[in-house]
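[Q] Does anyone have a clean structure-token version of this?
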Amino acid sequence: MLDGVLSLAAPEVLLSVAALVLLLVGAIGGPKASPAVAALSGLSLLVAAYLAAVGPHGVAFAGAFVADAASGFSRAAIYTMSAVGVLLGDRWLAARGDSKFEFSILVLLAAVGMGMMAASGDLISLYIGIELQSLAQYVLAALRRNDAKASEAGLKYFVLGALSSGILLYGASLIYGFAGSTHFTDIAAAVHAGANTGVLFGLVFLLCGLAFKVSAAPFHMWTPDVYEGAPTPIVAFFTAAPKLAGMVLIARVLMNAFPGALDQWRQVVIAIAVISMLWGAFAGLAQSNLKRLWAYSSIANVGYALLGLAAGGHEGPQSMLVFMVLYMIDVTGFFACLTALSRDGKPMETMQDVAGLIRQRPGIALAMTAFSLSALGLPPFSGFWGKVYVFKAAIDAGQWPFAVIGLVSSVVAAFYYLRLIKVMWFDPSPGETDPTPAYAKSVAYVAALFSFPAVMLALIALDPAATAAAAAFTGG
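[A] Here you go.
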């Protein structure tokens, strides 16, 4: 029996053991051990991604951990993007004389939490996964203790995160009290049997707590400040894997624990999606700091993903998974570009900083242009195909008015993406940029090539993989 449990949770076991062992290596070796710890952490994450993709399916820990096509697909993507985060962050910190082996350990622990979130089948494992991920991220945001902005970002993230955890736990307690169980399957049976409205009240509170974790409006208040204050490569990590883990967890709760309450939870999810799309689009218009700008962009993009999920059935979670994977690659590539850019040793983070970039760093400027056009939704870039999936799912489910709102918000958001492109291509440069590091450029260029043209081939494999994963949510 133990062998079966270990095989189902092999990626998480591997990462947990790696984190403990590498913590000892770092404590003994000190700062000099940081490159080795980072390399082994990245390797562990890639191996875990492989194990998640090819591992067996089943249920472990009395139903609290579910290894199926959905968790395999999600964990493979989460661990792969976390490995990229280790690469960007460790090299960036080392280049500034602030190398910390703890960075890689924290990413490993956050990845374990995200893996648990993607495979949760119980409210208790849901909470453990969320808190393991969140606690690691609070520390990551404030990792540079001598940076006042980073310390402020970590403090804000922690305080507001604690508030959201309280809301989430209150919702979970209501669900347990009225359904009589914390297992998703038992909750689904109670809802099907006609559990009273207390369960649905609990679901609303639970969704509010989960919406905070994915920075969906109106629970997004931490996002712009944390993105602006945290180190750029750490923001690259925040914007990718944790978002996918949170969205998969929301899908788990809605599709596995509350399939019989589709009409009730759909209203809440659509409301959050619409607010997120509109707020992300309009609030982004006033931003000049690129990290804050893409914070609002992430809020809008979470809204698009939630709109697809609200379609329900099989097409809803499938569209969400495709959209989130394409979004993760784009946003990681964009922040890799920002990681590569500096002037006089200071990060380039504002619109004015990147003025005239095409004449000094044409490769990076072209990559940022591709990511901006993709986020805008311009065909044939990857962002366009992601929006096709979610809007089609919404329209097929009869939610076409909200798909129209999504299209309108995309048009509004196009202003700040096009403004960024205009500044890079046509405005005069304020000065010469520093040399761009190869590791960050490599990540940016690979992501840009994926955005187009590689996405056309990637969709051939991504679509059936997402379809199989969605079937695990719906029991198909």
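[Q] Thanks! Anything notable?
[A] Residues 260-476 form one domain.
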